[in-house]
């Protein structure tokens, strides 16, 4: 193109503006195409879990998680929590600026809309691609049963009742050794949640003796400053693959915090399925050598197992729960009362989003997969008692 005459200087500026606005979205197409490419790779990972296990879960992922996790682990606070606040501010400013520009600039409105849509598409594609590369393939690795040797099968009501009775006895034994509040509710004995999070990271390695793939560097679980907000969203903990941080809601009743820490640390170790992470949390709590963690893990297993029993046979449930101590029952009721105050649209939307995320990662039961921990507990119970 030849330069336009000086008299057309205004038109020349407009020409350059329009072309840059039109050209940029096409260059961004390369970033948008990342998502379908990663999606195809995920389909292959799902079809060949053994290959996913050997190539990604046991080789690529440990390098990513341990290297980045060590860096973010140097910070005593949750880096991703700060990043979320900054992203919210940036998103509000960007949306206001973009929408305002679209409304004011009628001459280039079409170009601005294309630019806005392409930006959103790029962000979505990059988020999906990064989360898949940083940990998403682990949803399609081999099941933990390949390492544990557990045989998961349908179980009888009698087996489930026996498991529940054993857990009731364990909870009754551990509960008198716990610190309590003035109201008689279990309270943590740790000086701070940061100290508790460090202990969780340090003690998780005890599982490596039986399961070597769980060894190596383990970060401290980090308390979240906005824990109350997490409760409104019905979240007790969240693992962020971009920073490899295990973020914990510490506003919840104290007895559930240790098992939540171990649950998120199980995700850090590469086991993303919720049922397996719950089961590993129970194992890690028992292996920690700390009675407070052991009680928390037992309560996690007890609640899931007795809920399954209640849904199956209420009469047998009542018989099994009869020996439960009043103190343990009070802890459970305190937890129930705590969560009841957050029932409403926000928690429902959050649960729906979580459900969609789990289904998108091939956990067909969605949020119900949290309860499938019971199948692993029953398999372990039969193995331990020689009933397989």
What does this structure look like?
- By secondary structure, this protein is mainly alpha-helical.
- It is built from 16 helices and five strands.
- The chain has helices at residues 9-32, 34-47, 49-72, 79-104, 109-134, 145-148, 157-174, 193-204, 227-232, 257-268, 274-287, 291-312, 314-321, 326-340, 345-360, 373-384, and strands spanning 179-180, 186-187, 222-223, 237-240, 245-248.
- Helix 11 crosses helix 16.
- The protein is globular and about 75 Å long.
- The N and C termini lie far apart (80 Å).
Number of helices: 16
Per DSSP E runs of 2 or more residues, the count of β-strands stands at: 5
Nearest-integer average pLDDT: 88
Strand order of the largest sheet: 3-5-4
Report the span from N to C terminus. 80 Å
Name the shape in a single word.
globular
Radius of gyration, rounded?
25 Å
Percent of residues in helices: 55-70%
**Main beta-sheet annotation:** 3 strands, mixed
Order of helices and strands: HHHHHHHEEHEHEEHHHHHHH
Summarize the structure in short:
With 388 residues, the chain is mainly alpha-helical. The chain has helices at 9-32, 34-47, 49-72, 79-104, 109-134, 145-148, 157-174, 193-204, 227-232, 257-268, 274-287, 291-312, 314-321, 326-340, 345-360, 373-384; strands at residues 179-180, 186-187, 222-223, 237-240, 245-248.
